[in-house]
Amino acid sequence: MKKLLIFTFSLITSLSLASGFDPLDPYANITVTWDFLQQSESTSDVKVSIYNFQQFRHVDRPGWKLGWRWQGDEVIWNMWGAEAIYQGNCSRFKGAPERPHCCEMEPVIIDLLPGTPFNKQFSNCCKGGELSSMVQDSSKFLSAFRMNVGAFSNNSTNINMPDNFTLGLPGYTCGPPVQVQPTKTSQDGRRWTETLETWNVTCMYSQFRASPSPKCCVSLSSFYNSTIAKCPRCSCGCQGLPGAKCVKPGDELQLPGERETEEPSPLVTCTRHMCPIGIHWHVKESYKEYWRVKITITNYNFVKNYSDWTLVVQHPNLQSLTQLFSFNYHPLGQFGNINDTGMFWGIKYYNDMLLSTGKNGNVQTEMVLHKDEGVFTFREGWTFPRRISFNGDECVMPSPDEYPRLPNRAHRAAASRPSIVVFTSLLILAAL
Ligand SMILES: *[C@@H]1O[C@H](CO)[C@@H](O)[C@H](O)[C@H]1NC(C)=O
Ligand SMILES: *[C@@H]1O[C@H](CO)[C@@H](O)[C@H](O)[C@H]1NC(C)=O
Ligand SMILES: *[C@@H]1O[C@H](CO)[C@@H](O)[C@H](O)[C@H]1NC(C)=O
Ligand SMILES: *[C@@H]1O[C@H](CO)[C@@H](O)[C@H](O)[C@H]1NC(C)=O
Ligand SMILES: *[C@@H]1O[C@H](CO)[C@@H](O)[C@H](O)[C@H]1NC(C)=O
Ligand SMILES: *[C@@H]1O[C@H](CO)[C@@H](O)[C@H](O)[C@H]1NC(C)=O
Ligand SMILES: *[C@@H]1O[C@H](CO)[C@@H](O)[C@H](O)[C@H]1NC(C)=O
Ligand SMILES: *[C@@H]1O[C@H](CO)[C@@H](O)[C@H](O)[C@H]1NC(C)=O
Ligand SMILES: *[C@@H]1O[C@H](CO)[C@@H](O)[C@H](O)[C@H]1NC(C)=O
Fold first, then answer.
1. Where does the COBRA C-terminal domain lie (predicted)?
2. Model confidence pLDDT, tens digit, residues 62-88
3. Among 171, 177, 205, 276, which is disulfide-ready with 199 (CB 3.0 to 4.6 Å)?
């Protein structure tokens, strides 16, 4: 029966992943808003904004790369706050006093880097394409740039809305542009100008589209049993299979340069699970009314520092989280009836960056939870998480048969007299 339940649960999870729907963040999307600001005789001024409307999935370096397809022979004359990767073939403008910024029919635009000269900036630009999740920093979930668009045939002032938008991020697909109520826009928050036309493009994420294999796995341990439920073998890949590269101690490493525009594919330490990220959940201690969990996130990837990482955990006791060390926390699903799920992330300048393995990369937290009466139990793996995701991607859990179990004799003792454990740990503390 339990097996069946778990099977159904994972089936539901996979189905929801396939369609990109996540009950924890049902409205999750990235919206691209395209504002036609004004039109002169031969050119249009356009403002493009990219909003990350996702609770716990952020956009990390190397960042978004916004692409679209022009309907006619439009060219981008100038741009502020972003730039096209390629200028393209502008030879048609030979002899013109100024060459356009980009003549590609399918331009790809990237954000500028922090520290860009002021005259090339635009408000909310220049973050290297990074977008924060809404929970982590609701002031940094927006990127914007402005451009001046013209058409090659200089008698056509009619610039059409382009189509076929892409974000250049794995796993995201964008719908067609939809014309919406024009918005007023402002560069500085003081003066507001009318917009001629506004279009929205909605882009959705799907883990299956992003990567066929998972990117993280979970291992479990407890103070009451020395068994460790390890990350399942081949969670993210198998050693020895074709295409599976990994690094053994002493191997020479070829690390990519700093300013790559593509994210390097993971180069992991050789492990049984071959995942770039491992999460360890340790049930550490039991007090009279509380219990303590330690969570460790380890980076096994040599080629990536995970900045602004997030961890989403589902556990029925999270609603009684009493004390948390070294991480930030925010409960999720307040819009629905979910109250057992929350999001953890690092503290700025302290552990918001999960360094690559080469730098001994891991981050840790401990949390104290209240033993809710009639619900709490050490039996049947209740103290272990139901689901964990890292940076918005679901992690592989061990099989429930492998969970460390309460020793049979100790069932009653541990359940009814946890104060013994407190007593011993106090003794240990005193001995230190
Ligand atoms: C995109 O997210 C915003 C903000 O959460 C939401 O209002 C909007 O309905 C979402 N769009 C879609 C198509 O889900
Ligand atoms: C269009 O996107 C903006 C955010 O850029 C959002 O506020 C607005 O609700 C969206 N409109 C529709 C109809 O989805
Ligand atoms: C650039 O476009 C012109 C026509 O506009 C064409 O004659 C020329 O071959 C193109 N050059 C390249 C390198 O594609
Ligand atoms: C643009 O207009 C000028 C003068 O009106 C004309 O000489 C030129 O051929 C036009 N260019 C194109 C590409 O149509
Ligand atoms: C430009 O104007 C000429 C003459 O009015 C017309 O034949 C041509 O189709 C126009 N080009 C475009 C792209 O609208
Ligand atoms: C561009 O989008 C249109 C409709 O949105 C679609 O029919 C077409 O196949 C797309 N083209 C490409 C190259 O993706
Ligand atoms: C990760 O960060 C460390 C310390 O800032 C740096 O030395 C290292 O080169 C970075 N590694 C990668 C892969 O970016
Ligand atoms: C959490 O949800 C469960 C089931 O929906 C409910 O029984 C419980 O009372 C809720 N707890 C809180 C603190 O809202
Ligand atoms: C510890 O847990 C394992 C796995 O569930 C179980 O096989 C074993 O019997 C437990 N150890 C003790 C001492 O109960």
1. 215-404
2. 899 999 999 988 999 999 999 999 999
3. 177
169-186 CB burial, b ≥16 within 10 A, e <16: bebbebeebeeeeeeebe
CA distance 78 to 248: 49
Does ligand 7 come within 6 angstroms of the Cβ of 422?
no
Point out the ligand 7 atom lying closest to the alpha carbon of residue 359.
3
Does residue 8 surpass a pLDDT of 60? Answer: no
- Listed in order, the ranges of the chain carrying CATH 2.60.40.290 are 24-184+194-208, 213-238+266-402
**Atom of ligand 8 at shortest distance to CA of 319?**
13
Alpha carbon distance 15, 35 (integer Å): 36
User: Using a 6 Å cutoff on CB, does residue 3 contact ligand 3?
Assistant: no
Using DSSP's 3-state secondary structure scheme, residue 259 falls into coil
Q: Which residues line ligand 2 (CB under 6 A)?
A: 31, 33, 49, 51, 180, 200
Q: How many whole angstroms from 92 Cα to the centroid of ligand 3?
A: 8
CATH class of 24-184+194-208: mainly beta
- pLDDT per residue as tens digits for the range 254-273: 766 655 677 778 889 999 99
Give the C-alpha separation, 294 to 201, whole Å. Answer: 42
CA distance 296 to 267: 20
From ligand 4's centre to the CA of 98, what distance in Å?
Answer: 15
Q: Give the pLDDT score at 2.
A: 41
Give residue 178 CA to ligand 7 midpoint distance, Å: 41
- Please report the pLDDT score of residue 9 as a whole number: 38
Q: Which amino acid is at 106?
A: E
Q: Which of 213, 207, 209 is nearest to 237 (CA)?
A: 213
Tell me, what's the pLDDT at 414? 45
Q: Angle at Cα 91 formed by Cα 86 and Cα 92, nearest 5°?
A: 120
* DSSP-H helix ranges across 198-274: 207-210
- Is the beta carbon of 200 within 6 A of some atom in ligand 1? no
Nearest one of 251, 376, 230 to 298, comparing CA atoms: 230
Question: How many CB atoms are closer than 10 A to CB 319?
Answer: 15
111-160 confidence digits (pLDDT tens): 999 988 888 999 899 999 999 999 998 888 999 999 999 887 755 557 88
**Domain 213-238+266-402 part of CATH 2.60.40.290:** yes
The Cα–Cα gap between 241 and 354 comes to: 28
